[in-house]
TrEMBL record:
Domain Trichome birefringence-like C-terminal as annotated: residue spans: 285-577
Organism: Quercus rubra
Keyword check for Membrane: yes
Region ranges (Disordered): 102-228, 531-559
Primary location: membrane
Subcellular location, record wording: Membrane
Keywords per UniProt: Membrane, Signal-anchor, Transmembrane, Transmembrane helix
Protein name listed in UniProt: Trichome birefringence-like N-terminal domain-containing protein
Compositionally biased spans, kind Low complexity: 205-219
Record family assignment: Belongs to the PC-esterase family. TBL subfamily.
UniProt topology in membrane: Single-pass membrane protein
Domain Trichome birefringence-like N-terminal: 232-284
Matches recorded under Pfam families: PC-Esterase, PMR5N
Length: 592
C-alpha cells in the first residue's frame, strides 16, 4: 500500500515527470496480461466441455459420459434394455411371454416333502400372493391382498451339507455349449443408497445420468439429506456380460452347497447361466479374489441374517472362500459359523424368517399355533450377537406371504392367510407389515449403543414363476440366458415389496443415533433379468424326476425363487465385496 500510494504522490511532482510516465505503462501491461490469461482459461474450458474430450472430463469429475443415452425411470421394471453385439454375429434372444402373476415355490426333497431350514422352523420358501403385473401403483393403506394360498404340506428337515451329487447327464443328451459373444445392456437407475450413521447424514447417492435425463434417487424422504457418501460409481446400472472365464467354483469343489441349489449335480443340462458377469457402466466389479477378501476382512466377522435366500448367499460366500482355504466349523444350533484361521475371519449365518419378534402363544383373539409377528420388536434370537458383527447382510420379505398374525403396539392389526373376523377390518396387510418390519429391524441396528458395524440391506430378491403361480403352473424351465429387449415384465408383487422395503429403509435412517453405517444393495431390478438362474425342476438328484411339461402342458414342480450354485447369486457376493472394500479402503472405484 505504501508503494502504491507513495508512487502516486511522486507522479504529482513536476520534477519527477519522467518516472511518472513509466508507471502507467507498467500497470496497463499487467492489466492486459491478466485479462488475456483469463480469456484463455475461459476459452479452454469451453473447448473441454463442448467437444469429445469434454465427456472424458465430465466422466472424471462426475461419473457421467454424455455420449451415452440412458432411458431412466424410477422403479425397477420400467427401464429398457438393448443388445450390443461385439461383432457381426446374430444375437438370438428368445422372447418369453411372461405372465402377469408370480409366486413362490415351496422346495421339496427327493421324496416330495417340503424342506425346512431347521427341523423346528417353518418352511424355507413361502407362498406369494399373486398380483397382476398390469395393476397400476396404488396405496395399499388399509387394503388387503387376498389370501389364495393353500395349506402347506408336511415338513422335513433341510439339507445342511452337500449330498452325493448326481453324475453328469448323458453327454449325448446334454445341450451343446454355445459360444455367446454379446452383451446385454440394461438401463437401470442409480441406487447406491448409503448412510453414514457417524454423522447422521443420509445419503442416497445418485450419479448423474448422461444425456438430457437427470437421475433421481429411489431413496427419497422429505427430511433426507441427499449428499453422496460413496463417490465410487453406481453399482446397479450396467450390463450382463458373458464371461468365458467361468464360475468362481463348481458344484464339485464346494462341500457346503445345499443339494436343492446344486443344479449341475441335480442334472441340469445347460451351463451358460454360470457365465454371465455383471458390469456397471462406469467402473468394473473385479472378479472375486478370495485371498484379497479374507485379507480385507482380517480379524472381522461377516454375518448373513434372514431367510432361506440369506442361506443361499451365505453358502455362495463359503463356496467362494473355500477355494483357497478350508475353514473350521465352529457353529451351533443358534448360529452357523466358519472360521478361517489364516486371517481370523468368521463367516456366520443366523436364521430369522421375518427379522422381527415372533411368538406362538395365544394373543387376544389369535389362538395358539398361529405365528404372531410383533412388528415393532426385532427378533431377539439374534440381537444379542449384533455387537460382535463387523458386517451384517440382511435378507427378508418372502415369508410375509405366509400365514401369520400382525401385532403392533400390543394390538392385533392384521394377518396373512388368517383372519377369523370378517366384520373386523384389517389395519395392516402383509405388504405393509413387511415395510414396518424393515423399519423396525434397521432402527434397532442404527440405534444400538454397542453396534458400529456396516449393515448391508439386500433388496427384495425377485422370483420368476411364469405362466402362473408356484402352485398354478408357474415355471422357469428352459431359461438359458438373461432377459433382453422388451422381455422384462413387471411383477406387481415384487414392485410393491421393493417399494415398501425402501420406504422402511428411509424411515429407519431418520432415527439413526450410533456410528454404524447402512447401505442398500439394490439388486431387485438387476436380477429381474436373470430368469435363467433358478433351479427350476432340477431341485434334487432323483434320476426319475419330471423335468418337462406333461401331455396336458402342465409344468413339473420347480423352484424359481432360490438361485443355482454356482450362478447369479455369486454376483451378490462380488457386490458385497465391493461395498466392503469401499468402506475399508476408501471411496474408490475400479477403472472400467
Amino acid at each position: 500500500m505504501y508503494f502504491l500510494f507513495g508512487k502516486a504522490m511522486t507522479w504529482a511532482s513536476p520534477k519527477d515527470s519522467s518516472r511518472m510516465a513509466a508507471y502507467p505503462r507498467s500497470v496497463t501491461w499487467i492489466v492486459v496480461s491478466v485479462g488475456g490469461l483469463a480469456f484463455f482459461l475461459i476459452f479452454a474450458s469451453w473447448i473441454l466441455i463442448s467437444y469429445p474430450i469434454g465427456s472424458t472430463v465430465r466422466l472424471y469429475f462426475y461419473g457421467v459420459d454424455s455420449s451415452q443415452k440412458v432411458d431412466l425411470s424410477i422403479y425397477p421394471g420400467n427401464q429398457t434394455a438393448t443388445i450390443v453385439p461385439r461383432d457381426d454375429k446374430d444375437v438370438n434372444i428368445v422372447v418369453n411371454n411372461a405372465p402377469s402373476e408370480s409366486d413362490l415355490q415351496v422346495p421339496v426333497d427327493s421324496n416330495g416333502g417340503a424342506l425346512r431350514d431347521k427341523g423346528n422352523l417353518a418352511p424355507e420358501s413361502n407362498l406369494q400372493v399373486p398380483i397382476s403385473s398390469t395393476t397400476p401403483p396404488v396405496s395399499l393403506e388399509n387394503k388387503e391382498i387376498k389370501d389364495h394360498a393353500p395349506p402347506l404340506p408336511a415338513i422335513s428337515p433341510a439339507l445342511t451339507k452337500e449330498e452325493d451329487a448326481k453324475p453328469s447327464a448323458d453327454p449325448s443328451k446334454v445341450t451343446k455349449s454355445v459360444e455367446i459373444d454379446e452383451q446385454i445392456s440394461l438401463s437401470l437407475p442409480n441406487k447406491s443408497n448409503s448412510v453414514d450413521m457417524g454423522s447422521n447424514d443420509t445419503a442416497a447417492s445418485s450419479d448423474s445420468k448422461s444425456g438430457a435425463v437427470q437421475s433421481s434417487s429411489s431413496q427419497s424422504h422429505d427430511d433426507t439429506k441427499n449428499a453422496p457418501v460413496d463417490t465410487g460409481c453406481d453399482l446397479y446400472h450396467g450390463s450382463w456380460i458373458y464371461d468365458k472365464t467361468g464360475p468362481l467354483y463348481t458344484n464339485n469343489t464346494c462341500p457346503v452347497l445345499t443339494q436343492m441349489q446344486n443344479c449341475q449335480g441335480n442334472g441340469r443340462p445347460d451351463k451358460e447361466y454360470e457365465n454371465w458377469r455383471w458390469k456397471p457402466s462406469h467402473c468394473d466389479i473385479p472378479r472375486f479374489d478370495p485371498k484379497k477378501f479374507l485379507e480385507l476382512m482380517r480379524g472381522k466377522t461377516l454375518a448373513f441374517i434372514g431367510d432361506s435366500v440369506a442361506r443361499n448367499q451365505f453358502e455362495s460366500m463359503l463356496c467362494i472362500l473355500w477355494q483357497v482355504e478350508a475353514p473350521i466349523n465352529r457353529g451351533n444350533r443358534r448360529m452357523q459359523r466358519y472360521f478361517f484361521r489364516s486371517t481370523s475371519v468368521t463367516i456366520a449365518r443366523i436364521w430369522s424368517s421375518w427379522l422381527v419378534k415372533q411368538t406362538s402363544e395365544p394373543f387376544d383373539f389369535a389362538p395358539a399355533g398361529v405365528t404372531k409377528l410383533h412388528l415393532d420388536a426385532p427378533d431377539d434370537n439374534f440381537m444379542e450377537f449384533i455387537p460382535k458383527f463387523d458386517v451384517i447382510v440382511l435378507s427378508s420379505g418372502h415369508w410375509f406371504a405366509k400365514q401369520s398374525v400382525y401385532i403392533l403396539n400390543n394390538e392385533i392389526v392384521g394377518g396373512q392367510l388368517w383372519w377369523p373376523h370378517n366384520s373386523r377390518p384389517k389395519k395392516v396387510n402383509n405388504v405393509d407389515a413387511f415395510g414396518i418390519s424393515v423399519e423396525t429391524i434397521l432402527t434397532s441396528l442404527v440405534t444400538h449403543p454397542n453396534y458400529t458395524g456396516l449393515t448391508i440391506v439386500r433388496s427384495y430378491s425377485p422370483d420368476h414363476y411364469e405362466g402362473g403361480a408356484w402352485n398354478t403352473g408357474g415355471s422357469c424351465t428352459g431359461k438359458t440366458k438373461p432377459l433382453a429387449v422388451g422381455e422384462l415384465v413387471e411383477n406387481g408383487f415384487t414392485k410393491i415389496m421393493y417399494e415398501k422395503q425402501v420406504s422402511g429403509f428411509n424411515r429407519a435412517i431418520q432415527k439413526a443415533t450410533n456410528k454404524s453405517k447402512l447401505r442398500l444393495m439394490d439388486i431387485t431390478e438387476v436380477f429381474g433379468y436373470r430368469h435363467d438362474g433358478h433351479p427350476g425342476p432340477y431341485r434334487n438328484p432323483d434320476p426319475n424326476k419330471i423335468t418337462k411339461r406333461g401331455p396336458d402342458g402342465k409344468p413339473p414342480p420347480q423352484d424359481c425363487l432360490h438361485w443355482c450354485m454356482p450362478g447369479p447369486v455369486d454376483t451378490w457376493n462380488e457386490i458385497v465385496n465391493e461395498i466392503i472394500r469401499r468402506e475399508y479402503e476408501g471411496n474408490k472405484s475400479f477403472p472400467s
